[in-house]
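Re-running 5-methylthioadenosine/S-adenosylhomocysteine deaminase to confirm reproducibility after the cluster update. Everything else is unchanged from the original entry.
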Amino acid sequence: MTDLLIHDAIVVTMNQENQILKNGSVRVTDGVISSVRATEPGDRDSAAGRVIDASEKVVMPGLIDAHRHTDFALVQGLFSELGGGELLKEAFALYHTAEPTLGDSFFEAAWRLACLRQLTHGVTTVNAMDFTPGLGAEAIGESGLRAVIGSELADVLDPASADDQLATARRFIETYHDTYEGRVTASIAPGGEAGCSRRLWEGVAELRADYPDLRLHTHLYDSAEADTMAAGSGADDPLDLLDRYGLLDERTLLTHLLHADRSDARRIADAGAHVLHCPTVYSYFRAGERTWFPLPALQEFGANVAIGLDDPFWFDSWDLVREAKHARLLSNFEYGAQQWSSYDLLRMLTIDAARALGLNDRVGSLEPGKRADVVVVDIDTPRHRPYSNLPSVLTNTVTAGDIETVIVDGEVLMEERTVESMDVESVRTAAARERERLQARTGWETSLAGSTPPDESILRRVSARPLLRALRQYGRGIVHQHGW
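Result of re-run:
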């Protein structure tokens, strides 16, 4: 018996033929899509376990956030008005305070809030690298979402920690890979050429050999000094660094690439590696002060590109649809109009992202045999009608607020904007409590008008040794993302 039937929908399949059904139905049995076809009269009176009337609405694959960090989701709004340098200093101080004094409850609340926000924004799969991956795996699994998660590795300021970090990553893989009915899988996540010692890279190569099916998820070329940083590990440049350790192939995910050039793009494409592009966070804090990633060359050589939100709490947006729009606008500004078509952007948010994560045999398109990760988008409103060119509507005018129903593995997690898989009030209560604890311990002042860092000097709040520890553990996540 069909468990779930969605009927009378505009079905954007994202299959190889780019098929769009004007009036279609999607059937789901045991979490798997059993058919995608034109709606028949009997569908409206179906005896399926759950029936969703999607008349005049769009049904499409769930969105995939291809790169993100989650640990500090509760800091949203604190840093939004700061410049890059000031943000860096305050982030170090905040991280140093939060880690030893707030404990797991702070990060548990952050992960649960992140899951709620992803769910309500139509993100059904996330690819994360974080310092609290176990908490993340449990939060993702319990929320009903899907994720690839890696324990972030960065030891450059404390090389003695390399073996401990590698052991932690191995334990995470052994404990959480392929759990929660296969919705949670593990990755290997070295921070990048700037954050990892030679010993750590050797250990990453050992992990890769022991777990050959896992994705390697890292940052590359996000600093103008990338070649110099790679030289510290005995390589000519960051791609050579990965290649020397056997880490550059079709299972490799490379994030940012702001300072990569045409020859780098060719090498990436030739290796079959995937590119994870996060445009907003760079343009928000340091617009105009760096080169843009080599999109024309990546397109010319056929590299697969997906889109991620990175740290959405820095710039106060969890909307992956708008992130795709920003990617188009910023690339057009840099290189000229029509760098990406609307359908290109939709693919980057769905099937191309699934291919990057090695999940394209399971999710990313609506086809029989795939897991039923589905979102319903309400475009039957004055904001959108009348329209033509549906892909353009979905990428230029739709926002995450138009997503009303979210399904993962055939389970309805949210219907008509009512969340069913999470206790929303408990998530909000825990987040508010931990946010208050954070502010009380750090001295941050917040109001409806904004946020103010503590008056006390960073040099008095954080001594040199703890600051280095904070940089190794948490600050690295800021440095490698923003090139400071």
